[in-house]
């Protein structure tokens, strides 16, 4: 059986890596979500798929990775032949690839919401804002009468965002409601454009804004990930890298891995500048957690155990991960430099034209 295509299918070549990554979400009525958790987990584990899938009465959300054939089988299971029937057909799905396994284990979780806002009046299955294709996004956000809002959390915005975008400075999506109440006005802000990583937050945020009396609400279809996939670097208005919730940490144009890494103490994403900060100590602390004595102590002890294991000729549980992180950072730096060179050539070509 042919698996239904997602609403955001790949349109640029992807590197031929051994792992296929599938990010997906769909707001759909799943009153039987609890009974679907265990069978879905078993289906994935039997095929070596790893990652996280969240099921809730309002739908599904998650990112998983595995062998290409395994991910294709999961897509068919979710959208056509499995116990979900056709309820997830038309889900927002994005595919990419990875050279190394992005996840360590497989988790299927049952939650009250697939993206937590705690606002019952926001129901994307009933009403959402206007979808804007990535190819039309630049024109929309260039308008002076459009208020551009990044709906992601502060640490995500810190890695990269669109020019002119407002940063709500939230640490949780639940805080977005307070930001709207304090900083946005339906009488003043007549046109609002929003974006997030893959589109799911914006669907819920747009539904919430409409419930609060905002009349014209737009959101980037497929999110930043789709934009980075299909918009050439020379035409991009996105600055920096896009944070993703797996071991890649961040991605750039073409959905290639970026240069960001994670602090192993506090899990905050780190840029090259962060790693050059005086408070950064590999595996121990960064500028975001250096003054948190408990986290720094725990990380320092973990780093000490890893060092002792190496000296004894053994291996610590976190040793391989740390070494792979270092190798990954070097690979990311090389890919990022190639991407910057490509963007520069494209820009010069357009200028000459």
Automatic annotation (TrEMBL):
EC identifiers of the protein: 1.14.-.-
Catalysed reactions, semicolon-separated: uridine(34) in tRNA + AH2 + O2 = 5-hydroxyuridine(34) in tRNA + A + H2O
Keywords linked to the UniProt accession: Oxidoreductase, tRNA processing
Enzyme class: oxidoreductase
Annotated ranges, domain Rhodanese: 142-236
One protein family per Pfam: UPF0176_N
Role according to the record: Catalyzes oxygen-dependent 5-hydroxyuridine (ho5U) modification at position 34 in tRNAs.
Protein family per UniProt: Belongs to the TrhO family.
HAMAP family xref list: TrhO
PANTHER family linked to this entry: RHODANESE-LIKE DOMAIN-CONTAINING PROTEIN 7-RELATED, THIOSULFATE SULFURTRANSFERASE/RHODANESE-LIKE DOMAIN-CONTAINING PROTEIN 2
Name of protein: tRNA uridine(34) hydroxylase
Organism annotation: Devosia honganensis
Lineage, broadest ranks: Bacteria, Pseudomonadati, Pseudomonadota, Alphaproteobacteria, Hyphomicrobiales
Gene: trhO
């Amino acid at each position: 059986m042919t698996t239904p295509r997602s609403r955001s299918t790949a349109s640029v070549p992807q590197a031929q890596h051994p792992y296929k990554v599938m990010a997906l979400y769909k707001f759909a009525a799943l009153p039987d979500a609890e009974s679907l958790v265990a069978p879905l987990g078993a289906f994935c584990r039997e095929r070596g798929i790893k990652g996280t899938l969240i099921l809730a009465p309002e739908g599904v959300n998650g990112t998983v990775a595995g062998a290409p054939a395994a991910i294709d089988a999961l897509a068919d299971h979710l959208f056509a032949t499995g116990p979900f029937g056709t309820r997830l057909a038309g889900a927002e799905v994005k595919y990419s690839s990875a050279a190394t396994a992005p996840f360590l284990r497989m988790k299927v979780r049952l939650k009250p919401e697939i993206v937590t806002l705690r606002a019952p009046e926001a129901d994307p299955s009933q009403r959402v804002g206007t979808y804007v294709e990535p190819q039309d996004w630049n024109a929309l956000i260039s308008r002076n009468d459009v208020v551009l809002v990044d709906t992601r959390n502060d640490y995500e915005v810190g890695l990269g965002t669109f020019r002119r975008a407002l940063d709500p400075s939230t640490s949780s999506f639940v805080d977005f409601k307070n930001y709207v109440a304090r900083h946005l006005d339906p009488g003043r802000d007549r046109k609002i454009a929003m974006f997030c990583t893959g589109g799911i937050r914006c669907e819920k945020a747009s539904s919430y804004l409409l419930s609060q009396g905002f009349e014209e609400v737009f959101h980037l279809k497929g999110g930043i990930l789709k934009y980075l996939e299909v918009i050439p670097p020379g035409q991009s208005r996105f600055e920096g890298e896009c944070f993703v919730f797996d071991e890649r940490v961040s991605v750039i144009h073409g959905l290639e891995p970026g240069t960001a890494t994670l602090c192993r103490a506090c899990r905050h994403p780190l840029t090259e500048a962060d790693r050059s900060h005086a408070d950064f100590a590999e595996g121990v602390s960064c500028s975001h957690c250096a003054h948190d004595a408990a986290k720094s102590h725990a990380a320092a002890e973990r780093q000490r155990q890893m060092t002792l294991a190496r000296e004894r000729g053994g291996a610590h549980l976190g040793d391989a991960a740390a070494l792979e992180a270092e190798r990954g950072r070097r690979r990311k730096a090389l890919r990022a430099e190639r991407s910057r060179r490509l963007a520069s050539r494209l820009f010069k070509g357009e200028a000459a034209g």
